[in-house]
Amino acid sequence: MSSKVSLIQKDEILEKIKSAKEKLGKKLLILAHFYQREEIVQFADFVGDSLQLAQTASKRNDVPYIVFCSVSFMAEMARILCSPEQEVLHPAPEAKCPLAEMAKMKDVEKAWRKLSTLGKNIIPVVYVNSTAELKAFCGRNGGAVCTSSNAKKVFEWVFSKGADIFFFPDENLGRNTAHSLGVRKEEISVWDPKGDNKLENFKKSKVILWKGFCYVHTEFLPFLVEKLKNSQNDLKVIVHPECFPEVCALSDFVGSTSFIKKTVEESPPGSKWAIGTEWNLVRRLQIKNPDKTIFPITESRCCQMAKVTPEKLLNVLEGLLKGELRGRVVVPEKIAEGARIALRRMLEIV
To answer: Is the pLDDT reported for residue 242 higher than 60?
Structure first.
């Protein structure tokens, strides 16, 4: 009985979201990341990866209210890029990306001070999965933000300036990007914020990486890929560049979530795919591509993305109908100013 009541309540919540969205009309824009659950995605006006969402948020200055269904750093990004007159709201401000929390401002500044004594030209690049403070740090120091979609182009931009890269906080994305550009293993080093970092280890480094990782993508291990390839004929493996380099080396394709989506959708009927990224995107691809065989390398979910629920989305929309700004995203202008510089560089390098 209780499960039936729960299903009825769920349907009522979804109907209320639909009704509230219709009432708010053109005043509202709902953005959602690919990793959101289907109950949220169905109400989104645009679904995309971090770069696509940043591009959309920066261009839609005609909408008074933007509701960002994602983890918190993405909503902060929208707040920084949108006009002051717009309001950005987040249904689950408590949804924090663990990767973004792996680089603390005080630790990055400490590393930067030490690396600056090397006398090298170093440009900081921060992955979009980061706090607004770290984006501001890069903006103040001539650096840029990157996403998994344009990391390679941002790295090339740094190299074109005759500089080396200090990249944080995702070691795997940085290493995989460096490898794709032909940077040799001995030209890559890792800064461990909890370790003993001897400066002589970084003198010849073209790329200095932060010791951080995405727990969703490090679930995909080399033996799992090898097992699938050995058991499935004509199987293609496609993974996100936050995966271990050993996994990327075993895969047929490596790219961002938008790249994964596009590649799988455009493949011929009958294609077989093993995918290494968050479960919600894999499941959606399965449903929307019944003419293909699609499955995850292993089911790996982002519990932080899952904190955005229909109940919380409804709460934000009902607040707007009452003139209340629930889940309002605020970034102090002192931080936003520097972060905006780094984010705009990211959008220019596409």
So the answer is: yes
